[in-house]
Amino acid sequence: MVFSTIEFLFQFLPVFLVCYYLTPSKYRNVTLIAGSFVFYAIGSKWYLLLLIFSALLNFVIGRLVSIYHMRGNRHAAKVCFWIGIVYNVGMLVVFKYTNFVIENLNLLLGVFSLEIPHADLVMPLGISFYTFQIVSYLADVYTQKHKPAQSLLELGVYMCMFPNLISGPITNFGEMQPQIRKRYVDIGYLEEGLRVFVMGLGAKTLLANPMGGLWNNLSVIGYDSVSTPYAWLGAVAYSFQIYFDFSGYSLMALGVGRMLGFELPINFNLPYTSGSVQEFWRRWHITLGRWFRNYIYIPLGGNRHGTLKTIRNLLAVWLLTGLWHGASWNYVLWGLVLFLFLVLEKFVYGRLLEKTHILKHIYLPFVIMMTWVIFAIPDIHQIGVYFSRLFPIFSDSDAYNNRDAMLALRDYWKILIPCFLFSTPLPMMFYRKYHKSAFCILLLLVIFVLSVRAMMQQTDNPFLYFQF
Asked: I need a labelling partner for 185 at 20 to 30 A (CA). Which of 102, 163, 201, 222 fits?
């Protein structure tokens, strides 16, 4: 089920909130887990059984790791821990990467006229996100950073609660356990959650979806047929689409979480105002970056063992980051390109960027738009075609004909302006100052009405990160 649908807004959420608020506080986790199972089953059907089994297995493994630690049997604790890691990561690999591996093996086997049939697998919704959550749980229990969940219900709520089950934010058990055990709900939290939810809903339906329409138009036309100005406009459009799509979902997740008494971690902090790629990735998908830092980069040694090992560790992180986003070579290339820029910033021109005020804010959007083009186009050849339109040094003169870009601007300039505006700190500064004013409440009401109208009119409304 998608947050930005009529079914969720006017059927599931109201019914669930009524049941949740009417439930005595000590039983609310039962209502929450039941509602989360219903929410997940609507979109994933029988994969709900896999989710439940995973929660049960990881609860047992977490308890065993803790018990063996208390008995001083580190070897047994380590064995249990790695069984859990192999299972969780193995399920992710099987569902997400099996056909990717088969496709690449078939390229090699084609020399011998052999072919492996593709597996009939559908990736369970949210598996990339809840796998990372449960891996962090096992790692924290194994390193004795946190004690294991005291009950299956406690771990089930952490792993399966529907606000962040499908697309994050990726939480740590340590930050969620106190809230799972004890939290409060009142009209103030409901109102606050509704405000945040509406802002996210508006970002998704009123900004991300129209920008997605502009970007999709380029693929319909064909990348080799668009002009250079239109190619640049398309790169801008996709940059806004993916930002408002995912940040909008994250805001909606934070809003629903607040309605339920939870305070979920912030996932975005105005990333397009950054002055370097390194800063950008501290502000974009913050909880994913935190996960890779805490569970990959630092365990590998971080930057503590010299330049070469630091570069090695960054390469590992960005190869895995690329693969986490999708089973396709363009995601690997995307991760490698980001790794290259991060290394250059860290060891070559990073200090120069820090000293500039204008140059870094030209450099960052340029680099990020280029990387988003790689991210968005699955076919490596088509990526090359698109870049030939962006930089038409050897292209024909038609690449400079801006008629297609002018037609697109005529249709989309009213959306592009608020996209630029809402990428800056100004709207949030206004909201923080006037969020209790009648004008702000009226504005949010207008955004909600326009969002509902857009949902009823738009035929294509998926969240981009559902595919990851």
From this structure: 201
Q: What one-letter code names the amino acid at 404?
A: D
| N-to-C CA span, the chain | 16
Q: How far apart are CA 275 and CA 365, in angstroms?
A: 9
Type of residue numbered 121: L
Parts of the chain with a pLDDT under 70: 394-400, 459-463, 465-468
Q: What is the pLDDT of residue 465?
A: 65
